[in-house]
């Protein structure tokens, strides 16, 4: 399975580099790549939800600017002592890294990469967050597409290694942090935007991924850390049950924004 994952990722990366020709052809190739990536990711990790990069690229396309103040400060790193704190904040810093990368914020990208590297070392996760990765990031710091490919691959490797090592609970905790931060960033941008219809749509679209995440957590709630995260997300999950269609009402937006803010603050 690991070989299949690597082949699929390699094919996707090659396809991205070779994109050309008319817009219709680009759209068709992009759709094929997206399906391939999602299916491969699901088959290896059982986590069929959007990645932080996918969510944040939607935000970028919607025309929102970068707001540094909404990200978790790397200076908080020393406060995270337990495995759950380190794992969930690895996910949070990963989403912040994705946010900085999508907007080509050079210093912030390196800050969140370093914070992620430290937590990965603390959690004893055996992946390629090493000197070679840092060098590749620095070499491609001004090339957004290459940078996204490099970092996305490193996070796929994180999930793959955790799963193959039988550390599913740790992988779930990372995933929770990443999902929470992605939704939190979206809600904060929506609140600061005069025209927030696109961001409301992005938030409404997270109903399905939260439902999937809750199912995964429920299957592993015999673990105390997973049970605690399930309880923290439960009120938000309940709010999302009332969401229908591709947008939120103002009342739903307010309640979901307050809910994700509460969850996120409890994690950082």
Head-to-tail CA distance between termini: 34 Å
Q: What is the 3D shape?
A: globular
DSSP strand content: under 5%
Give the structural class. Answer: mainly alpha
Mean pLDDT: 76
Order of helices and strands: HHHHHHHHHHHH
Largest sheet at a glance? none
Kindly describe this structure:
The protein is an all-alpha fold. It folds into two domains: 1-45; 49-267, no CATH class. The protein is built from twelve helices and no strands. It has helices at 2-18, 23-45, 52-61, 83-102, 106-122, 131-139, 144-164, 168-192, 197-204, 206-219, 224-240, 250-267. Helix 8 crosses helix 12 and helix 10 (206-219) packs antiparallel against helix 11 (224-240). The chain is globular.
Which helices and strands appear, and what pairs or packs with what?
Blueprint: H1 2-18, H2 23-45, H3 52-61, H4 83-102, H5 106-122, H6 131-139, H7 144-164, H8 168-192, H9 197-204, H10 206-219, H11 224-240, H12 250-267
Helix pairs in contact: 1-2, 3-4, 3-8, 4-5, 4-7, 4-8, 8-9, 8-10, 8-12, 10-11, 11-12
Feature tags:
single chain, 268 residues, mainly alpha, 2 domains, 0% strand
Précis, in short:
The chain has twelve helices and no strands.
């Amino acid at each position: 399975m690991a070989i299949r994952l690597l082949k699929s990722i390699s094919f996707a990366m090659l396809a991205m580099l070779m994109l050309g020709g008319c817009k219709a052809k680009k759209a068709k190739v992009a759709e094929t790549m997206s399906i391939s990536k999602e299916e491969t990711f699901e088959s290896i990790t059982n986590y069929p939800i959007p990645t932080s990069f996918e969510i944040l690229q939607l935000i970028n396309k919607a025309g929102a600017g970068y707001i540094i103040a909404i990200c978790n400060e790397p200076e908080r790193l020393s406060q995270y002592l337990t495995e759950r704190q380190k794992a969930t904040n690895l996910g949070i810093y990963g989403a912040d890294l994705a946010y900085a990368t999508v907007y080509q914020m050079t210093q912030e990208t390196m800050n969140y990469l370093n914070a992620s590297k430290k937590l990965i070392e603390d959690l004893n996760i055996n992946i390629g967050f090493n000197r070679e990765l840092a060098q590749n990031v620095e070499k491609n710091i001004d090339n957004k597409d290459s940078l996204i490919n490099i970092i996305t691959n490193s996070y796929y490797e994180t999930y793959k290694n955790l799963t193959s090592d039988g550390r599913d609970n740790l992988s779930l905790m990372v995933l929770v942090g990443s999902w929470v931060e992605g939704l939190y960033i979206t809600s904060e941008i929506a609140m600061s935007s005069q025209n927030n219809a696109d961001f409301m749509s992005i938030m409404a679209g997270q109903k399905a991924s939260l439902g999937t995440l809750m199912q995964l957590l429920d299957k592993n709630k015999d673990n105390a850390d997973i049970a605690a995260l399930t309880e923290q997300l439960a009120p938000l999950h309940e709010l999302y049950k009332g969401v229908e269609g591709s947008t939120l009402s103002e009342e739903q937006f307010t309640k979901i924004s307050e809910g994700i803010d509460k969850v996120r603050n409890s994690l950082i």
